[in-house]
Amino acid sequence: MLRIKRLDIFIAKQFGLLFVGAFFICLFVLMMQFLWRYVDELIGKGLTLDVLAQFFWYMGLLLMPQAFPLAILLSSLIAYGNLGESSELTAIKAAGISLMQSMRSLIVIVVCIAGLSYYFQEVIGPMANKQFAQLLISMKQKSPELEIPEGIFYDGLPNTNLYVQRKDMQTGKLYNIMIYRQSGSYEDQAIILADSGMLQSTAEKKHLLLTLWSGEWFENMRSQDIGGTAEVPYRRETFCHKQILIDFDSGFNLADGDNISGSAKAKSTKKILHDLDSINQFNDSVGHRFYEEARFYALRMPTYTASDSAKLEEAVSAGEVEDFDTLYARLSEGQLREVSTTAARNAQSALNDVTMKSDYARYLHRQARMHQIEVVGKITLALSCIIFFFIGAPLGAIIRKGGLGVPVIISVVVFIVYYIFENSGVRMARDDNWAVWFGTTISTMVLAPLAVFFTYKANNDSTVFNVDAYRLLMMRMLGLRQKRNITRKEVIIDDPRYREDADRLQQISSDIRAYSEEHSLLHWPSPIKVFFHPGDDHQIEYISDQLEDIIEDLSYSRDRTILHELNHYPILATHAHTRPFRRKWMNIVAGLILPLGIFFYIRMLRFRLRLYKDLRDILATSEKIVPRALELAPSEQQPVTTTTTEETENI
Questions:
Q1: Parallel, antiparallel, or unpaired: how do β-strands 234-247 and 207-220 relate?
Q2: For residues 111 and 432, is the Cβ–Cβ distance under 8 A?
Q3: Is this structure's pTM higher than 0.85?
Q4: Which residue in 5, 12, 72, 640 is a FRET match for 386, CA 20 to 30 A apart?
Q5: CA end-to-end span of the chain, whole Å?
Q6: How many CA atoms, within 13 angstroms, populate the side-chain half-sphere of residue 629?
Q7: Which of 645, 615, 647 is nearest to 520 (CA)?
Q8: Per-residue burial over 510-529, b = 16 or more CB atoms within 10 Å of its CB, e = otherwise
Q9: What is the distance between the alpha carbons of residues 331 and 12, in angstroms, rounded to a whole number?
């Protein structure tokens, strides 16, 4: 039976406090980022505090599901980073509790948060989306004079389309104005051109006053007012100054939500699946209708078989029937112009019809895809809470850094990667470039393997983010090495074995001289032996092991001279001077690839030259250390013969 232990409560408290703080921080950051998109709808509109409060309230409800995964990532990373930094995580593992066992209480909490995220998207999200969209539309209609864009037609005024080429933000004046007004049918419309103008609200906020300067007014008169004649009367007016009063309620009125409720974001999953069937059925009926129309026009067109074409060619060649070019050449100039105009008009009409049907079909299919994206997106966003936890907690256990430094940087990087894949996938799925299931789940497919990898590495105490390990690897690849840094020990229990170490250094010197006589390190070895034959140098490995053992023993010396000279001993590379890699197949591959083989061969020559210098440095350093070690050795021990400078020069 699952029992709640004190450790579970302790870790849950650590995570819970951090999660609450991180959640409000993340929500605030997301709201500020989201606010920049709608700052133009808020500034200068004269909105009351209750309207602004509703705006921020619904915005917060919309962004809560997005804040959950980021807060989980940040809080879990900080929580386990603090545990690792204070060595509490080490104590937990020393007690026989694995990382996964320590996370079991948090796993339950995170699953509950994921369920809460899905509940918000399923129940609260549709309502919040609908109310938020209503507020935005109402805000845009609050002061239309501030919403008029430059260079495009604005249809925010009733029965009026307004085009402004340029507007002055300081004075509110509009320049190069074009207005289309239509209060009834086609017979009752007007076109107004003006050099400049200004749009202002009246004092009672029930009308808009449009003041125009230096313009013309073109208008079709109502035909029913002229006795019902077939022709529509027309009038033209030139003016220097004119004012037009437009009915418009400038007070804040909540927009109608009927049109907004058709959006996929304003529906629950059950409603989306229900409407999706209706949408697909309607799309199929539209496509079938387009097909029937195309088939109908195709049946009306005459069809010709291969035999008919052959008969027609025979008749033309026999002179019984004239071909098209002959008939076309007989037409007069006016007839040619009329035929060409009619053909171009018919072709353009057919093209416009096909384009209209194509755009409408694309719009219908886009609506269906948006509903599918919304259904899958609710599941993937809730699932991202669990994925982010299994990224944050293992990373915190690996890097063992708490606070708001490294965890915040890692959290931001992970969330940016998630955000890029999520938005790119949704956009590609929405535009029908990718399948819906692929575009909406690509972020999950990218981050889920990372979560598994980090959890596995952290559970096995891996040093995947150990900077020193990567630095040493790069140094080995580039042929670099560290210098020794031996200092005097604070506490020394036993003195070094000076006599034994001097004997062993003497023996190493003899081995180095024998090795130098047997191997010519300054000669270029055969590439065949380097890449295709085994070449471990066991002599250098033995010399290196013996030397490191002696250095370790002498490092406990109190003598400053010996400690200083020990730092002059080089760290030997035991195999890089014989072949590039330890594994035979890797050497064969490197040798077969010519440019790569040349690089590794030159690198191997560099290591041979370095080994030659290192051996000389070892002999020279031993020549200084051996006499000093003999001086520090007990007097009853017998002296040994030391290496002379002349012998060192012979190497």
A1: antiparallel
A2: no
A3: no
A4: 5
A5: 74
A6: 34
A7: 615
A8: ebbbebbeebebeeebeeee
A9: 93
